[in-house]
Amino acid sequence: MGPTVRSTPANLAYRLLALCARAECDTAQYHAIAQAAADVTRWATIPAQAETHGIAPLVYRHAVAAGVSLALPVKRELQGLSVRHRLANQVRTRVLQDILTRCRAASIRVIVLKGAALSHLIYPEPGLRAMRDLDLLVAKSDLFPAQRLLGEMGFCAPLVPAGQNPEHRHLSAATKSVEGFIVGVEVHQNLFEPGASSILMGIDELTSVPLTFALEPNGMTAETLGYEDTMWYLCQHLIESTNVFSSVGLIWVADAVSFAERFADKIDWLRVHRQYPLVRSTLSLLHFLTPLSDSLLARAGIELGRAPRGMWDDFRKSPRTSPEAQIDQGYVRTLRDALFPSEWWMRLYYGVGSAPRLTARHRAQHLAYLLRRLGHVMRRRSRSRDSSISDQTLETL
Q1: Residue 167 and residue 160: Cα distance in Å, rounded?
Q2: Alpha helical stretches, state H, 40-71
Q3: Which SS3 state, helix, strand or coil, does residue 311 take?
Q4: pTM of the prediction?
Q5: pLDDT tens, 79-103?
Q6: Is 92 in contact with 134 (CB distance < 8 Å)?
Q7: Among 112, 164, 335, 374, which residue's CB has the most CB atoms within a 10 Å radius?
Q8: How far, in Å, CA of 206 to CA of 19, rounded?
């Protein structure tokens, strides 16, 4: 039995979306989806929310497979989004094949990251994994040659725009209109920003053998991160994409859970726990959003505690709402919510997991985080010679 969900329209809708945040479901999971769908009262909002979290194709596929009766307007909207993502991904795959062909001719090694690889590795159909950009990791010495190559291919491919740190993890996105879709390509030299508390950074620091996968339909092969590096990257990316005023995208949940399920027997879990302890703590929390299989729990040695408080408010209640919503509720409440986020958010962001206790040390860690962010804001505002509080100040927290 899953954790109790407070009976508000927003929480019940989020519960349904979270259960659909996975590449594949078994019979028990489809039963849970059908039950959650029966409780939803605001179906008109579901397609837009699913699209916001990058899982509209998954929601449609799993709802239909679970026998959920969809109202015609909702069904048409989810169908339309699914078809659009399928066509867009077909275009992006062809563009990726062209880029890899040119890079290989130029002796530039490319590691394909995130959706461009996962859509072919762990999803039953590539179109089920919504994407915005193609993310490519290259050696630092190949960063600018790769970007220039994109320019030669007709992309608008800026090198280092004014004001951008040349040590940023990736260059500004190169963009090109292809068959009516805007295709963006981000060329990375690092997986994360310099100075982040990350272990894995550039292509030369990979610790596991890269995986080879086939790009449909012509079967061209490409490389992505190895099993253990991918598992760590997905969990770390999920967390580092989250700050006090933004929410965890359910597509990142789907990626992490689905990769763990798909390759549970291939991943060296002992090594993962030793080298990347964040993985186990993250999966133990994601279990309460979209339950992990018994076989994965056993293979990975994941220890489960109780469902954290506040997890179902994650996309509705402070501090997980937009900066504009924070302003509407007043600065005093905004400060309070930033200082005292939900137990769910604290456990996820600081790698506590579901079983260990939150301690005063974790609260102190959060206070230090806020002070660092405040210092960053103050330095930015000092440079702009403007001491007034603005929307942008809140957005940077």
Answers
A1: 10
A2: 46-52, 56-65
A3: helix
A4: 0.88
A5: 999 999 999 999 999 999 999 999 9
A6: yes
A7: 112
A8: 32
Amino acid sitting at position 14? Y
Span 242-294, pLDDT tens digits: 765 556 789 999 999 999 999 999 999 999 999 999 999 999 999 999 999 99
Q: Are 297 and 357 in contact (CB under 8 A)?
A: no
CA pair distance 152, 135, nearest whole angstrom: 18
Asked if 257 and 18 touch (Cβ cutoff 8 Å), the reply is no
Please say whether the beta carbons of 19 and 29 come within 8 A: yes
> Which of 104, 118, 11 is CA-nearest to residue 58?
118
Q: Of 230, 232, 252, whose CA–CA distance to 242 is shortest?
A: 252
DSSP state for residue 140 in the 8-state scheme = G
What domains can be seen in the chain, in order of their start residue?
9-304 (3.30.460.40)
d(CA 215, CA 355): 40
Classified as helix, coil or strand, 134 is: strand
Strands 181-188 and 111-113: unpaired
Distance from C-alpha of 16 to C-alpha of 34, rounded to nearest angstrom: 9
